[in-house]
Prior knowledge:
By secondary structure, the chain is mainly β. It has 2 domains: 19-69, no CATH class; 72-146, CATH 2.40.50.140. It has 1 helix and 8 strands; from the N terminus they run H-E-E-E-E-E-E-E-E. It has one helix at 23-32; strands spanning 37-41, 48-49, 65-69, 72-83, 89-101, 107-111, 125-130, 141-146. The strands form 2 sheets. A 5-stranded antiparallel beta sheet has the order 6-5-4-7-8, with no helix packed on it. Strands 2-1-3 form a 3-stranded antiparallel beta sheet, covered by helices on one side. The model has no long low-confidence stretch (mean pLDDT 91). Bound molecules: zinc ion (ZN).
Amino acid sequence: xxxxxxxxxxxxxxxxxxxxxxxxxxxxxxxxxxxxxxxxxxxxxxxxxxxxxxxxxxxxxxxxxxxxxxxxxxxxxxxxxxxxxxxxxxxxxxxxxxxxxxxxxxxxxxxxxxxxxxxxxxxxxxxxxxxxxxxxxxxxxxxxxxx
Length: 147
Ligand SMILES: [Zn+2]
């Protein structure tokens, strides 16, 4: 069941502090060296985040349990690019995908390769194409290709 929480009160944005928590991203990049995707699971509601989040967006509790996610998943949304940022037509259209990997509750973005733009569909099964030599960077995940 979906739950919405209301936090009453005055929010003084001038004193609001943002916290950038990098441990989840570091954990994911470390796993990517071995072609593994490590996220985090909320112990209260079971939501799995990739990249790992340090708090649950639903329960507002700290999340630090590692959770391994599959490198196979499903296309949830996509964009086909037919022009560059200046509007010039591209010789080869680009495919950008939002993918929900099996075992994760969040989506990640990536480039689609080895697929024709007209064949891309929501619900299409894809898998991560890993770089041959992985260094623990986002480039380790080269693209998504059809399963
Ligand atoms: Zn939760």
